[in-house]
Design a protein that fits this description.
Layout (H helix, E strand, L loop, with lengths): L12 H5 L7 E9 L4 E7 L6 E8 L5 H16 L9 E6 L3 E6 L7 H6 L6 H20 L2 E2 L8 E3 L5 E3 L6 E2 L1 E2 L2 E2 L14 H4 L6 H18 L12 H9 L12 H10 L10 H5 L2 H5 L24
Antiparallel strand pairs: 1-2, 2-3, 3-5, 4-5, 6-9, 7-8, 10-11
Helix pairs in contact: 4-6
Length: 311
Amino acid sequence: MAYLQVVPPPISPLSVLANHPDRPYEVLKPLGQGSFGQVALVSNRRYPEMLAALKRIVITGQDREYIDAIRKEITIQESLTGHENVIQVLGKESDAQFCYMFLEYADGGDLYEKITSGCSFSLEEAHSYFKQLVNGLKFLHCRDVAHRDIKPENLMLTHSGHLKIADFGLATWYRYKGAELIFEQRCGSVEYVAPEIYTGAQYRGPQIDIWSAGVVLLAMLTRQLPWEFPCMTNKRYFFWMKNRVAHIDAWNELSCRAKKLLWKMLSPGSENRATIEEIQSSAWYLFGDVENDEVDDDDNLPGCFFLWQEI
């Protein structure tokens, strides 16, 4: 079972962080690893308050497939300009050995750190982050781009409360000359991939992003992942398929609005999965868990009255 996980060649951290007096920027600290290269925080030497995330990618000695994948990532991300919920490309340059991407810097870390930090994480924050994620995905899909690796580690945050979609190493265009493309390439992170990807079936780009966003929402609301992988051999996923209830203690604490949205987003059949428009018209998206007389919360739904049981 192989998933497309592009692994950059090993690079000495010291070489990535090495400053050079001729460069117009100064490397401040490492930030992590992207799909194709290591990322560091840099500042403009002339205007030190101007910060960016510098992604340096080795191109020397790489095969054609690797170079094409890098070019595709850069081209896709450059096409996604002008949206507050997508990390922006600020510039790029290259030399004989490396390609450099200067990216918008999000100063609040990533959503995974937020979820796992143990610090307070309110329903209001989860609601805000989810709405921004959906808004960002809507922008991507309107540009015919499927991200294909939506997970908390690829959702960057700012201290002012903004969420931004990052790391387009597995992204692809899903429409060609007006016709929607069907994919077979297995890619992504198994905890977040849709079942059609995991089982090796053909899939459509937007639907797999919706599934992954549903897993992210459930992780935000419960601080747990619902299953290790979306296959009937996994007992937690089997439990979900059989009862439409996540095998998580915190599931019983979720509102019916949230559960109703999760059922639509995590529908095993992609043809029945919620669309962006359906998500944005859902009660939980519009109001969160705030009481509203205009919303008819149907308590007579599976899981709203479910008595907990072990498998």
